[in-house]
Structure formats: C-alpha cells, structure tokens
Amino acid sequence: MTSTAESQHGSEQRTGVPGDIDVVILGAGINGAGLFRDLSAQGVSCCIVDKADFGSGTSAAPSRLIHGGLKYLETGEFGLVAQSTLERNLLLKNAPHYVSPLPTVIPIFSWGKGMWAALRTLLGSTSAPRSRGAILIKIGLMIYDFYGSRHRVMPRHRLVGRRQALRDIPALTGSIVATGTYYDAKITHPERLVLELIADGLEANPNSSAANYTSLVSSSNGVLAFRRQNRGEFSLRPRLVVNAAGPWIDHVNAALGAPSRMIGGTKGSHILLKHEALVQSLAGRMLYFEADDGRICLVYDYLGKALVGSTDLAADNPDTVRCEPAEIDYLLESVRTLLPGMRFERDQIVYAYSGIRPLPASDAAIPGLISRDHSAPVAESEPSRPFPIISLIGGKWTTFRGFAEEVADTVLDRLGRIRKVTTRSMPIGGGKDFPADTTARSSWLAKAASASGIDEARLDLLLSRYGTKALPIARHQSASSNEDRLPDSHDYSVSEIDYIARSEFVEHLADIVMRRTTLAISGSLTTSDLQQIALIAGRALGWNAQRISEEIDAVVTQLNGNNLMGLQPEHLPRTTSDRAKLA
C-alpha cells in the first residue's frame, strides 16, 4: 500500500479540483476495482468512487469461493464454465496469498437419477434437476476437468463408493451411495483483494484516484458532483462513465439521467458456526451438496469456523439485506440432514452475512436458474449527458478479471487507445513475488527479517495474511515504540492496526474490524480488542473521545443487528504484566 498521506488524502487532492478525466467508475466492488486496475495500467486516467467503503457491498458477501461453476453445466452455460475455470487457475497464480485450492466432495445419493431432469434443464426447462445421480455427476466432472485443463494447477476428479466415502468422512449420512471429489479454490480475504486491486491501479497511474464514502450529488451538463463524507465536495467532467454499482445500478443510472431496469438480484445468506468436530471431520475439504429442495449448499472450514451457505432468494433491496430466521433454519436443517449425529443449533452461530447478487432482471421462477454470466450494455451519450454510460451487469467473483478485460477493451476502443499490457499474468497486491515453495518462502523470510528487524515467526504470519505487502507492515512495526499485541487477538499487533488505520483508506472503525482484518467474521472480536482498535484508529485519524465512542457503538449495533454477532467476553490476560501494560 501507499503511505498515509498518499492513501488517505492523495486521492482527495487529485480529485478535489474540478477537472477533466477519462473515466469515472461508480462503485468499488470487485468488478469496479478490477476495471480500475486494468484501465489505470493502460494509462487511462480513472477515478473510482463508492458511497460506502471499498468492497463493502455484495463483494463482501460471497461464499468466499473462487470456482469454475460446476452447476452452470446444467444450464448449458459452457462458455461461462470455460471462462470461470480459466480465471480460477489464473487467480491461484496471481493471488496465491489469498486464493488456494479447495478439495470439494459431492455426496451422491443414487446411481442413475437426474438424467432426464438435467436434459430438460439443459434445453431450457424452468425446473432445476433433483437428486443428481453418480452417472450424471461423473459426466459433469469429466466435462469440468476438460474445461479446467488450461493453465491446470490442480488434480483431476475421482469417485469412490459408499464404504470408502464413509471411511473418509464418517459423519456423512449412511444413505449416500458414493462421493465425487474435485478441486476448486477458496479466497480467505475478498475484501482485501478489492483493496489491493485499487492500490495497484493507483500505483500504476498517478493520474488515477480513488475515494470511498463518496456520494454522487448531481449530474448536470456532463459534470458529476460528489460529496466526500466529512471532506467536502469535488466535481469531474468524464469522457465516459462506468456504472459498477452492482445491486444499485438502476438507482445510479436514474441519478445519471439514464433510467433503466437491468437488475433483478437474488439474496444469498451464509452463517459461520463454531463447530470443532465438523471442522476436524472436513479436514480442509468442502462438502458441496443438494438440500432437500434441490438447491446447492456448501460447508467448509473458513478460518477455523464452519461456513454454511447459501440461500438463493429473490430480493432487490441491498440496503436492508440481512440473514433472516427462516434462512438460518434452512441452512441448519440442510447440514443436519447431510451430517446426522452432529449437533447444529443457533447457539453455534458466531457470524452471519447476506448480500444481493447483481444478476440481470429475469422472470425465472427459480432464482438459482438465473444466469451468472455478465454483460455491459451501453447508454449512449445525449445532448444533456455528453458521456456514455457502460453498466456492468451480473458476473461473479471468479470472473472479475476477464469481465474487466472485456470492458476495458471496449473503453479503450471508445477512447481511441490501445491496450499496453495484459492482466492475465499480472500479480495482485501481495501476490507479487510471493514465494512459490518452502525454499523460496524461507529465503523471503530471512531477507525480510534482515530488512525489518522482525523475527521470522512473526513475518511468516504476516506473509500469510498480506502476502509480500507484509514487509512495509513489518517495517512499521519495527519503527513503532509499541509492539504489544491486542489484548485478546494476540496475533494482531498494535502497530499493525496503526498501519492499517493510517495507510488503507480507513474512515470508520468498521472498515478495520470487518474488512481490513478478519477479526469480526472469525467471531473472535472481543470488547477489549474493539476498544483498543478504536483508540489506535482515533490517534491515527484524529478522532476525539466522542467520535471514538460513536464508532464503537456503530460497530456493536451493526454486528448485533446485521451479523448476529455478540462481542466475545474478554479472554484471560497472557500475564499480569501484559494486562497492566494494556490498561
């Protein structure tokens, strides 16, 4: 990341004076951030703005998978599967600090069922297949392996019978006849990946800028006026506008003077359970299974908790979305049926989250059959609006780079520019020069220890958390006079939080605990840690006592209301002297 002044105020300085710019991107989720990096790398001047924090909307509420979309084979979206598997393999190479392989197990309950239903769906039926049998799954996995062969980085699939399957995962219901295992990938910190894409764009082009917590105030005669939270206003005259607002696309188009009805989103909710027995039984694998109604559900180990998802319900208001009681019942009952004998109750939930998938408007009776493919329709310029608007519709986390590349080529063509570089092999953030094996990792740690004065054990943790961006954080820690850990989350240091607050576009306490770190979603955040983090951020950002108190209250309200999370009680102090120093 860049320095404090550059990150926190540099974008304001660059965009604070009204002026001409090539492209304004409205919405800093994964699609907007990916496009921002691509265009900036081509020398196009861009300003990306978001009304909230970067990556805080739909992009913060995925299943945290980077996957090829096995289920899209049923709807005949072979092109989407081909692109998704390719992009998955590229992300494993370009973002190895956050994206890693995930062995995935499909429980199978019959040998031959589902063939005719799958054929009907493939031909356009509005009903989803039920009870997909071993023959159908075998065919699907063979096709999936074929599409995933480009830049292959993971093993091919395999099927085993009931006896072997129950030896591998004894907790599975005895009604299975077999299991199929294939490989996809997971992403440990999608919010930070969004942030790193934006940082990469800023580094690539000094004429580009980024601003979170920035609202579009007006659009008049080709000039867009914005208001930054607590920072005043600025205006820009773009040659082209990209609407990457996800579920809010239609609202933004209306504000731009180009009313539309493009989005017909669906809601996806997830819960995280504190369930050590289940996590141990999964042993690093994901279970990808049918619920009783035919929907696809999943459960896997995420940061030591069991992540269970997801629902797929028609919904269109992203500002009020939350995991509802009926959804919790549905998810819990789904895993109870699959894993009988294990206890699944509400008191095991440590966190819940929901988001609206920005899918194209559709009359499909079953939300799960709405295409996850993407498109970028253009509203051409008009006399009262001299810039065209490109709206980014649909898509999914895995395919953001490919989607951005397609749209960037369209933008370049309209601007009369040519592509200078490809992003296909471009590392993201801390994925640059990331050590690829044990020997390279040991070498990196030794050099970083010499450069920072921090011990290798600590550097190893930071490398896992931030990739090679760990080095400036380690140097900040070395220069700090206070290297104590947080009171309860001992693997986070005070200086680490201070670096984040000063250098990573932080405006609110929630930015730190919910997006720059995994303290909240892991269910480990305590009252003591929250208070300490607020004090660190307050010192870094100039908050007074009232502002600190308001920030704490806002986080507690959000976690309790939207995320079903109560702050954990304090852990026992490490030592009496440690507690005394933190008091």
TrEMBL record:
Pfam families: DAO, DAO_C. The keyword Protein transport does not apply. It comes from the Bacteria. Transmembrane segments: none annotated. Its cofactor is FAD. Belongs to the FAD-dependent glycerol-3-phosphate dehydrogenase family. This is Glycerol-3-phosphate dehydrogenase/oxidase. It comes from Mesorhizobium jarvisii.
